Amino acid sequence: MNEASLAMTLHMLNSQEVQDKIAHATGRADKLAKDTRADEAKVAELFLTAIGKKPTADQMAKAHLEKHAKDKKQAYENIVWALLNTKAFLFNQ
Predict the structure, then answer these.
(1) For residue range 29-42, what is the model confidence (pLDDT) as tens digits?
(2) Can you tell which superkingdom this protein's organism belongs to (predicted)?
């Protein structure tokens, strides 16, 4: 079955457990925040990992990363959370 159930979708959207995993000190967001590569390369890596495709120019999250320039970890946590809640991730599209 490739379709996510409503309960699973709601769990992904609202779960403190999922949020804790995203925010963990050894998680991907923390590692990317410390990584010296360009933000574009790191966002592309997240997209490829989560949904198997590169982001479009509109999906690159430049404005979001600029808004959170002082807290890159938070910026990457937000991007990871957003990707985990896309239809492409939840429904394996």
Answers:
(1) 999 999 999 999 99
(2) Bacteria
